[in-house]
Specification:
Distance between the termini: 32 Å
Strand order of the largest sheet: 4-11-9-6
Helix content: 10-25%
Radius of gyration: 18 Å
Strand content: 35-45%
Largest sheet: 4 strands, antiparallel
Number of strands: 11
Oligomer: single chain
Number of domains: 2
């Protein structure tokens, strides 16, 4: 989790009605708590690999080569996920996808929705492009900076 994501997490947490929040991502952990006069307390730490249960530790190790292979096999320009979340290609299950292969996209046009912590975040194109390939399916989890679309810049 990078600094921008932590900062956004703190902002969302401060506006929420939650009193406590704990997020673990691999070896990284963030814990937040409200309820005292000083505001929000944020604690971050790196969890030692030995402290993680064996089944939990095995899952990230198995997933890492898949993500690395996918990133290495993508040729050309890509649009990557700006955050960790769940990918949705349309605003609702019955609605058509925001974009599909072959579409020409203008800068600022919505490409997809990434759900993170029950918040729906629209991902917009940062440049004009043509969609060549969609690398993830609806409801698939995506990692930060993971390629989502292969594009050709216009």
């Amino acid at each position: 989790m990078d600094f921008k994501e932590i900062k956004e997490l703190i902002r969302v947490f401060d506006k929420s009605e939650l009193n406590k929040l704990k997020v673990k991502e691999g070896e990284f952990e963030v814990a937040m708590q409200k309820g005292f006069e000083g505001g929000t307390v944020v604690t971050t730490s790196a969890v030692a690999p030995a402290a993680v249960a064996a089944p939990v530790a095995a899952a990230p190790v198995a997933a890492a080569p898949v993500a690395t292979e996918a990133a290495a096999s993508v040729a050309g320009d890509t649009i990557n996920s700006p955050m960790v979340g769940t990918f949705y290609s349309s605003p609702s299950p019955e609605a058509p996808a925001f974009v599909k292969v072959g579409d020409t996209v203008k800068k600022g046009q919505t490409l997809c929705i990434l759900e993170a912590m029950k918040i729906m975040n629209e991902v917009e194109a940062e440049f004009d492009c043509k969609i060549l390939e969609v690398l993830v399916s609806d409801s698939d989890p995506v990692e930060y900076d993971m390629p989502v679309y292969v594009v050709e810049k216009i």
